[in-house]
Amino acid sequence: MSSLKIRGIIRLFRPDLSLAAGICVVAGQILAIGKFPPMLTATAGFLTAFFISAAAIILNDYFDYEVDLVNAPERPLPSGLVSKREAIWLTAVTSLLGLACAMYFGSVVLALAFVLWVIGVLYNWRFKQSGLPGNLMVCLSVASTFLLGGISAGDFWNGIIWVFAGMAFFIDLGEEIAGDAMDMEGDRKRGSRSIAIKRGRRFAITMSVMCWMVVILLGLIPLIMGWFGWSYLLFIGITDLLLVVFSIRLLKSKTPGEGRNAMRGVYIGATLAVVAFMLGQLIK
Question: Which among 112, 136, 153 is the end of a domain?
């Protein structure tokens, strides 16, 4: 196998997204038990989410082949680095690997992993251009990584897990809706039924900001319940500040580029805050 082929396969995986899914599962495990889980538990949980996410991402490029021929000809499939047949085989292999890793935890985790896999297939096959229903499918998958972590660690009903899953859901929902508002021109050509197409860019951006304000409210629950100490107050304060600052920037944005920069600020800021909080939990 040539080095170009290998690079094409790696790009097809979009490893940053698959890695993020795996990290969220481990984060859920840490939140559930208050410490780093046994290495085998962490590894199996990470790989379950990594491979299930990779399967959905590869399938996304498969169904986007015709669009990418025009809009992203440098992607592995339209550029010819990876064939469509090879993409299907890679989807099958990553799917089986993800489900096999889930089997380590038993039937409940396996069932949830299978549901997430089905959501990924349905989204790419039928719901990508559906607007809000498609957005909700993506956000549900993102939030479920924390729940998967809780289940795999043996503490599914831990309230902390559900709060963080809710925060992840609404952060991603805001990102999805805002992303559609930044891609209106391309979405019109694809026949998308996004909120931005149906109600306008301003309405979609306002909806995104409202989602992020819900995140701020959800973040107060652990504080009110007394689940964490002062380290959490610092974490949530930084997160809320970033959400407010970049929400204002998004509302003031005039171009897709400015809007994407604001969205990137929300994503990077929230991710760094969560990582810092996880480290705080581990070293306390």
Answer: 153
